[in-house]
Design a protein that fits this description.
This protein has 209 residues and is of the alpha/beta class. The protein is built from 6 helices and 8 strands; from the N terminus they run ββββαβαβββαααα. It has a 4-stranded mixed β-sheet with strand order 5-6-8-7, covered by helices on one side. Strands 1-2 form a two-stranded antiparallel ribbon. Strands 3-4 form a two-stranded antiparallel sheet. A hairpin with a 2-residue loop joins β7 and β8. α2 packs across α4. It is globular and about 55 Å long.
Amino acid sequence: MLKFECPCCGNGLFFNNFHCLACNTEVSFSPYDFNFALTAESHNCQNRAGHGVCNWLSEPHGPFCLSCAANQVVPDLSIIGNQEKWKRLEEGKRRLIFTCLRLSISLRGLAFRFVAPTPDEPATTGHCEGVITVNIGEADPVTREATKQNLNEKLRTIIGHFRHEFGHYYWSQQIEHNQQALQRFRELFGDEREDYQACLDQHYSSTNQ
């Protein structure tokens, strides 16, 4: 586990900190240095000052950080409660992107949509051609817990959704059309061509015993 430090006083910092809890200095996270830097307003992600949902430094030639720049759709902030939901989603997304950067996994073509159900949009969490869509209801603890119980799941988390859908993106980018990688995948995890629902039923049957 990485340890982060305040660049001013050396106090330990958590991944989502906006300021040091010891010296109260405002800090921003650099996804390329994997540590915090002193906050410079001109270099902060625009979603920090505007909405308070991001604590990363902006990209050199843009108003947003690497994570926020990948957003295609964000929640309607005119609706009460959506800003807090968005913040939770961004925290999970930043953890995913941070992990990818540490593992040198390409993020080329990756984008995100955070949506709520409407008469024309079911807001189904999923992946399609590099775009990860997340139902913002997953950022509501009560809704997420109710869904977990209805589906008889042992665990349901925001970061889990991001990692799962990113797995589909990674599959399409790195494995699906690479015969060597595909063969190795099947040796480790099984044949992806088997019936999905049957495998899912078998999984939950074995884990619930």
